[in-house]
Specification:
The structure is a homodimer. By secondary structure, the first copy, chain A, is mostly beta strands. Chain A contains one helix and nine strands; from the N terminus they run E-E-H-E-E-E-E-E-E-E.
Chain lengths: ~120, ~120
């Protein structure tokens, strides 16, 4: 049997809305999600889990209350749990997120950018 | 404070041995590891966890007892726990692995390709 790998470019070609992550895979109780971002997200934190950002294409910044990290294609960063952060991208940036199943994108902050969870593509 | 992202190319430039994964990040109790592979690995399985392969550069094949998956740059695959598999790469392939801290690369199979664990770079 010929199994199929998950191709990030092919999956990214299937949607165009921003800030709405799509799940592409699960490993144990963790999910791998693709998301396109542009503009400024809301300040938020995740109380129960770290969160991984991997930049697949583009540039972005994650602001913290005490600093920032710049990220570009081929780079990753782990945001520790309970640390407030705000993702920003001047131009559209394509990202792979890794976090436990059930994590809400806006953490405890809510608001209009809160996305539907567990949307597969 | 200016935090530094983890740059995969920069980290991959710091080692040349094959089949010896280097940890570059931890998220909760999971590790992100870079590894360079070439040739055929041993058949093995992980009884307690799924395992994620993300190809950063090159091509590889993962053989299963009932089939195979071909993977290239920008593709990922989740190997379910308890599923026997054998990674193969004709030419050197550079991979990002995601799995829980403490997973042994050869699973229960052992042998000379068993690598030291928890080696950071």
């Amino acid at each position: 049997m010929e199994y199929q790998a998950i191709n990030f470019s092919e999956k990214l070609g299937k949607f165009s809305d921003q800030w709405q992550a799509r799940v592409v895979a699960e490993m144990n109780d963790y999910q791998f999600k693709l998301v396109k971002i542009q503009g400024e997200f809301v300040w938020h934190e995740h109380d129960d889990t770290d969160e991984v950002f991997i930049v697949l294409e583009g540039k972005m910044v994650i602001e913290f209350r005490n600093g920032r990290v710049e990220m570009k294609t081929g780079e990753m960063f782990v945001i520790p749990k309970k640390v407030e952060h705000k993702p920003i991208a001047e131009n559209e940036c394509k990202i792979l997120l890794v976090e436990p199943r059930g994590v809400v994108n806006t953490g405890d902050s809510g608001g209009e950018l809160t996305a539907e969870n567990d949307v597969w593509i």
